[in-house]
Amino acid sequence: MKALVLNSGSSSLKYQLFQLPEETVLCSGLVDKIGQAGCVLKHKQNGQKVDFDLPDADHTEALNKVSKVLVSEEHGVIKSAQEVDVVGHRVVHGGEEFNTTTIINEKVKAKIKALFSLAPLHNPANLQGIDVAEEVFPSAKQIAVFDTAFHSNIPEHAYRYAIPNELYEKHGIRTYGFHGTSHRFVANKSKALFGIDPDKNKIVTIHLGNGCSMAAIKDNKCIDTTMGLGPLAGLVMGTRSGDIDPSVIFYLSEKGHDISDIRLILNKNSGLKGLTGESDMRAVKELADKGSSAAKLALDIYAYRIKKYIGAYTAALNGLDSIIFTGGVGENDADMRANVCAEMDALGIEINNEENAKWSDEARDVSNGKVKVLIIPTNEELEIATQCYRLITTGE
Questions:
Q1: Domain residues for 325?
Q2: Within-domain flag for 218
Q3: Residue 176: inside a domain, yes or no?
């Protein structure tokens, strides 16, 4: 089976074509800056990279170009679009409607559209990707994999907010959580690679990138997560504030900031960027190395927030077997992993500094204590592909 995985954003389109069940990546790529003069398709196949300029291309033109590259004599890996059996779509928000991988039909599309207000930056682009894929790959089954689905087992006492019931009943205001595909992937990998019992475990997964989130996983089910109604809550991120006293919003409003301005501040101008002027962790570390006190403080705040959630989730899980670092920062930043794990020995968390400092793109155990400290590279596209394969072959 050939499965094309699409991750459609407002101005980008990521793709990977897999041969399943072998999990072989036939090719991959990214269309960046869609709708802009600098739009470009970056295609990778057999270790070879090639770029195609697509000035001002929209999503339809971008995906049509991807399909042409897939079947081209020089760069293609298939003979026709009909060879694609399944197109798996990352859909950010499934609300309470979707808790499993789902074959897409008109009713499903209508429900995804109804959730636009809960994910205004993501679900519209996700749905547009679905519409375009139906035209470009008409013979393929279209399947949605929801970021929120992995968190659907969170108990009500953990996902409900202490606000008037009618706000939950009428508007669905509750914790949904995100990055679920990544959390599921690394948790499953920890069982396969490190012998963790899949049905009896207490795991905290830590996804650190430009967006950051954590999940508490007990006996193979997520019981809590740091992001909430939207992706703003929880950890300090590249440009998002993470947890903040709601009073700050009222105070800013009283000081003359309108709601659009406050939304921009908390989503685009806070986090590492708000503290240092830089949103990329590598740039923040460079500033800290040059003596910036603001950058050093930002790194401390970033690590401290993670430590607090590890403690909270250890309590929620009634113990802890392992923590897993993943995402661009989690996989590559040895200093941040060391800072997070410092002075955590009372919880059984001790890091092997020598092993932690070694770079590798392979999964590894860098722990010294009773709690495993694992680094597992995430692969959301592969997780989407395997979920699609499982749904088609087993119905689950």
A1: 197-380
A2: yes
A3: no
Residues 229 and 348 in one domain: yes
56, 85, 131, 147: the catalytic one is 147
The verdict on pTM exceeding 0.90 is: yes
In a domain, 352, yes or no: yes
Each residue's pLDDT, cut to its tens digit, for the chain (396 residues) gives: 999 999 887 778 899 999 999 999 999 999 988 888 889 999 999 889 999 999 888 888 999 999 999 999 888 899 999 999 999 999 999 999 999 999 999 999 999 999 998 888 789 889 988 999 999 899 999 999 999 999 999 999 999 999 999 999 999 999 999 999 999 999 999 988 998 876 789 999 999 998 999 999 999 999 999 999 999 999 999 999 999 999 999 999 999 999 999 999 999 999 999 999 999 999 999 999 999 999 999 999 999 999 999 999 999 999 999 999 999 999 999 999 999 999 999 999 999 999 999 999 999 999 999 999 999 999 999 999 999 999 999 987
In total, how many domains does the chain have? 2
Which are the contacts of 71, defined by CB distance < 8 A and separation ≥ 6?
Answer: 78, 79, 80, 81
Q: Establish whether 147 is a catalytic residue.
A: yes
How long, in residues, is the chain? 396
The pair of structure tokens assigned to 158 is: 């953990």
For residue 360, how many other CB atoms are within 10 A of its CB? Answer: 11
Hey, what's the torsion of the CAs at 86, 90, 93, 95, to 10 degrees?
A: 30
CATH, residue 337: 3.30.420.40
Based on the fold, state whether residues 216 and 111 are members of the same structural domain: no
